[in-house]
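Hi there,

I know you've been waiting on this one. I reran it after we fixed the sequence typo, so this is the corrected version. Both the input and the resulting structure follow.
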Amino acid sequence: MITWCFAIFRMINLILIGILIFYKRKDPALLLAWILLLLFLPPVGFVMYLLFERTPVSRKKLLFLTEYTDQRLERQIDYQFSECVASVIAFNEIYNGSRLFMYHDWMYFADGKSKYDQLFMDIEQATQSIHLLYFIVRKDEVGQRLISLLAQKAAEGVEVRLVYDSAGCFGTTLKFFDSIIKAGGHVYKFHPPTLRPIGLNYNYRNHRKIVVVDGRIGYLGGMNVGKEYMSLDPNYSPWRDAHLRLVGDAVWDLQHRFFRDYFMVCEDKRDEVHIQSNLDHYFTASLVTTICPIQIVSDGPDTPTDDIKLAFVKMMQTATKSIRIQTPYFIPDQLFLETLKIAAYSGVKVEVMIPTIADHHYVYRTTTSFIHELLEANIDVYLYKGFLHSKILVIDDEICTVGSTNIDQRSFKINYEVNAFIYDQLLTHRVSHQFDKDLENCLLVDESYEKNKSWVVRLEEKVYRLVSMIL
């Protein structure tokens, strides 16, 4: 019986290998890892393929939104960018179709308290619609305050729509959001776990954090909803993060992206019809005149290419002075890592900041496995004395990106992510200045860090690094 089961798994896996070779464009090293796993561990390889292989997701119901925004958004000006900056903008426009938005007022948040204070104020003042998409909404005092406020606004007649990720909010049922629903709001899980013939869409997590208020104010970045983001959880304190509040043209793109995800899970056809019949209600013309050029780039299983990762690589390729990275997880693929090392060997000052506190042990061990390689390339590695959840990349103190994307394979290949690419020196300097402040709470890693690792840590790093390509 066992022999027959293995034979069946092996036959299925041979078919999967054929699909990988002939129908999917993959990095050769990753392709080889899949082939070896499927050949030599048939049952395990089959299950892991279902869990972790990326299967494209349909983009239906989106064409009308794209056509609408293309017709409405024409406000541009002639503006001179440096050659390097212009090349990044052109790449995002040509490769992933990201429009350049010119006019914005902005606020940058490095801590949860300032972000929540402003967000709750914006929600309290909302008069038309409130749209929220979060990976995590905790059932703590912060989450309860948000739910209470949204229920209040829904009762006042404001349209409230909330999407939360079912894995990020594991254990949280719709009952927690009952007050919003009873007040007339709409709440949905993103991708409730269901088995599909070609894979588990449970593995496709929506890691984006988007809020759009009255079609005019937009939020995106790294912060979800929970007390830990305010450094109130002693296990993850101090907590550092990065989040943006935008008022201006790019909010249209955030609204567009929210609706794209909302239509994937919405079960109320009347609400879909209502949205499509009242687009002017959700896409409000901006009167902002402050020049702050921004592109919004999103990525996920609904795109066949690695839009955000390649935009990161393009940014790093333009660096002539400095590259600064903050990320909770540093698990780059070969392209990202080699681009970073080439920059360092070319005289560019490269700084990578990661946390000292681990929220996922195996991910942290995989992250620390790269430290020796970075040090060999003369890259400065800093350990933030706390939990660093900020996801930023700053190039030459001239351009930067802020968003939900980690430097790891899950963000690059599997999750739904969104980032703002910013070509404004004032905002970029604000992000870089926060990096400087964070350095005051960091340890600079040297070779002694590697020498002091125990054999257990070294073994863990090698094992986790090996499987990180697939996971």
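Quick highlight: The mean pLDDT is 87.

Best,
R. S.
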